[in-house]
Predict the structure.
Amino acid sequence: MSYDFYYWPVIQGRGEFVRLALEQAGAKYTDVAREEGGMEKMQAYIAGKEAGVLPFAPPFLKHGDLIVAQVANILDYLGAREGLTPADEAGRIWAHQLQLTVADLVQECHDTHHPVSTALYYEEQIEEAKRRTANFLKLRVPKYLGYFERVVARNRSASGKLIGDGVTYPDLSLFQCLAGLRYSFPRAMVRIEPQVPNLIALHDAVAELPNVAAYLLSERRIPFNEHGVFRHYPELDG
Amino acid sequence: MSYDFYYWPVIQGRGEFVRLALEQAGAKYTDVAREEGGMEKMQAYIAGKEAGVLPFAPPFLKHGDLIVAQVANILDYLGAREGLTPADEAGRIWAHQLQLTVADLVQECHDTHHPVSTALYYEEQIEEAKRRTANFLKLRVPKYLGYFERVVARNRSASGKLIGDGVTYPDLSLFQCLAGLRYSFPRAMVRIEPQVPNLIALHDAVAELPNVAAYLLSERRIPFNEHGVFRHYPELDG
C-alpha cells in the first residue's frame, strides 16, 4: 500500500527527514502537496475537515486510514515497516531517542534565524538572531555533534553507523542535519568538522547509498533555500 | 520490576511529565538524583561511564537493562506498560503525536525566558525574552491550546479527555502545561482560559485523580520555581 506524504511543497524543512526515509526504503509514495490540487487536500486535514485524527501541522503521513503526524513519530512508524529501525524493542527505543535528539537540534537550528517569533520575518529579528546563532555555533552544535560522534564511536559493531550494522532512520536524519549545517554555516563548519570525523564519514556513506544518491540528483530533492529550517545568512555565519 | 528515574532533583522541568505518569500509574520507582549520592550516579550515565546506550541529557529511565531517554520516548514506553496509552497501534501513535506536540509547546515556553542561550542567565537576555514572550502569549499559546481544545471536542467518546474514555499520558502532560502556564503567566492566562473550557475541565479532572491528587500534596511534588521550564517573571506576563 502506497504512502501519502503531506508537507509544504517548496521547502525541505522538517518534511525532508521523512522524504529521505521514504526514498532510502524505496517506498511507493505520493508527495501530495506537490501535485495539482494537493495544497487544498493538505489544508483540509489541518482544518479538521477530513476524518481521522487532527494533525497539528505538516508533515503528516497517510497510510490507509491511519494518519501519523510529527516527524519522529512518522519515522518510528515507517522505520518499523521499511526496515529502517532495529527489529527488537530496545533497539527501536534507542533509534527513537536518537531521532528525538536530532529533532531538538533541528528546532534549535530553526530558532537561530527566528529567535523571537515565526510570525515575524527574519529581518525583523536579525539582532536577536546574531546573538542566538553565535551561541548556537559556539556551544550547541559542538555539544550535539559531539554527542552523536561518541554514539558512533561506542557502536560495538564499528560500522560507522549510529546503531548496529545497518542503516537506520537516525543515520539519514543526521546526514540531513550535517548537510543543512554545512549549507547554513559553511565557515563555522570548517572549524567544527575536524572534531567529528565519524559523523563526516557517516554523512558521506549515507550520500553514497544508491537510493539516496539517486534521490539527491533528482528533481524530487528540493534545493536548500531561505524558507526552510536550514538557511544561509552570511551575517550569521561568524 | 521497579523503575529508576533520573532527573535534576530541584526542579519539575521536563522530568515532571514522567513523574506524573509514574505517580498516576502507581508504579514503584526511585527518583534517583533526589537520594544520597544520586547525582553522581546520574552524571556517570551522562558521562558514558555506565554500560548501555548513552543518554543526551536527563530525564532518562532505567528499567532492568534498558535505558530510555527523551520524555516522549519514556512516556510511550511507560504508557504501554502501565495502561496510560491505548492498546491498539493507531491509538498509541495518536497519543505519541499529541505528546510530541506538547513537547513543542514546552520547548517554546522554555525559550520565552531563554531566547538567546541556555548558557546565559535570564537577566542577560531579558529584552529578547520580553519580545519573544509577547509573541508566545499572543499567538503560540492560543494556537497550541486551541488545537488541544479541538482534540478534546472531537473525541467521539465525549469523555473530556484527549483520547477515548480513559486517562492517557498526554492528558497528564497537558495538565502539567496548563498548571505551568498559569504559574508563569497568571495575567495572560486569565484572558486565554475562557477560550479553552474543555482544557480547563481536563486540568481539573486530572488534578482530582486520586493518585495525582495525593502526589500534588506530597513532598515528592517539587514546587514550581525559577530554575525550571515554567518560570514566573512578572515583567514577561504582559
